[in-house]
Amino acid sequence: MIEKAGTARTDSGMEHFGYKESLDRGIGKFGSFAAGVSYISILTGTFQLFYFGFGTAGPAYLWSWPMVLIGQLAVALCFMELAAKYPVAGSVYNWSKQLGSRIVGWSAGWLMLTASIVTLSAVVLALQLNLPRLWSGFQIVGDGQGPYDSASNAVVLGTVLIVFTTVVNALGVRLMAMINSAGVFIELIAACLIAFILALHTTRGPAVFFSTNGYGAGASGGFLGAFLVASLASGYVMYGFDTASSLGEETVEPRRTAPKAILRAILASFVIGGAILVFAVMSAPNLQDPQIASNSGGLQYIVEQVMWGPLGKLFLICIVVAVTVCSLAVHTAAIRLTFAMARDNALPFGERLARVNPDTQTPITPAVVIGVIAALILVVNIGQPKIFTVLTSIAVIMIYLAYLMVTGPLLMKRLRGDWPPADLAAGGYFNMGRWGLLVNVVAVLWGAGMALNLAWPREAVYGTPWYNTWGAFVYTGLILGSGLLWYGFKGRHHIGTLASHAVVSMDDAAPAKI
């Protein structure tokens, strides 16, 4: 069945922006949910960062998991309303532009885009934590004992994965969704089984989470200071749920599907990821083992100790699958954001970056450009792994700031009585009703507080010299400042929807495919 152009555009939420439909609308309900889950990636995030949280504040650091959920759930609920109203590519960019102003939208998009590319580079490095454990042949560079063997090998493995995600995204969203959905299905099953088996091997009770266990003693700020640092491990994991809405232009019935996908993604990640973390601590043979707090050990080390024989290897394979689909989702989200900004001529070479391949109905140029940039960033990891760690941390801060550029203007609209729009309730779409103002206030306060906590200059996190310790301000300032220079001198003079993507009149709108 083909709908009339006006109806299709109204149902798609794109009529507010005047864009033609040019992308392949082929993602279903599970595919939309899978996009959000794979970006958060239960297995990638928890296994990659457990050592940091545990090593900083011990078992009690896990209280940061529900703390982060409450804050990010408030953000997610705001995003769900926006996804019900505006399910468009590059969601954060277009939302902040619609709610605030053009420069707020551009700044949010620029921060989110640069952060997403760095995040892609960071995620693919996780292969080094798992593949050589499966088979020594994956240690291609050296034997792993040299000072730069692991860092260099991580770059090789990561580059191979980036090539894979680039090719898949270039071939079309349906292939991406199929691979991503299959990978997420495997990840969810594996995550549930890991939590279940760890639960069967518990050696201590939950009392371990209600004691500081000596962590923070003698340090500035005591345990609270240590806890705030350790909470970064949870804050680094639970974001990216907006990917479901960023694929809204390629989702069937997006105004109903995307909000549900966002909620399900964050709740599933919290429950399953939390279960793994809790039962891992309760089942670890020896919590004093220094390998648990080592980046070469961590959660993988506990799983290998608790699981028997081939089963531990099997779950490591599932973690590799999770890293793969997480990288795919991050790359996909970055492509859609690039496309969204480019069709507004808000990036250099906008016309080329916004070009959609007529055969695959996907923007191929952004896929390649992002892949190349992410691979080049990886090279930094070889000689300066600490700087790379700082950059990846800064990327998370920039994403929190970009989220704040959405929830902040949204709160202003609520206070002026301009939100929520009447058509949300009238059309049966998601809206928070009378709870919206309270949730929105929480989302803004959380975003500001967590961004400050993430950015706080700590040598234990960011190292030295001073420009690394203050890296959140130095590097974020450089990235945002350089972008604003382009915007001020050139971008603002020609930003506007490209003619090739603009709907001039209702008669010119192409029928939507369903």
CATH architecture: Up-down Bundle
Radius of gyration: 22 Å
- pLDDT averaged residue by residue: 91
Number of helices: 23
* Percent of sequence in beta strands: under 5%
| Broad structural category | mainly alpha
Q: For the terminal residues, how far apart are their CA atoms?
A: 7 Å
Specify the biggest β-sheet.
none
Secondary structure tally: strands: 0
Question: How would you characterize this protein structure?
Answer:
With 514 residues, this protein is mostly helical. The protein has one domain (26-496): Amino acid/polyamine transporter I (Up-down Bundle), CATH 1.20.1740.10. The protein has 23 helices and no strands. Helix 3 (42-57) crosses helix 14, helix 8 (149-171) packs across helix 9 (173-200) and helix 18 (385-415) packs antiparallel against helix 20 (436-455). The chain is globular, with a radius of gyration of 22 Å. The protein starts with a helix and ends in a 20-residue tail after the last helix.
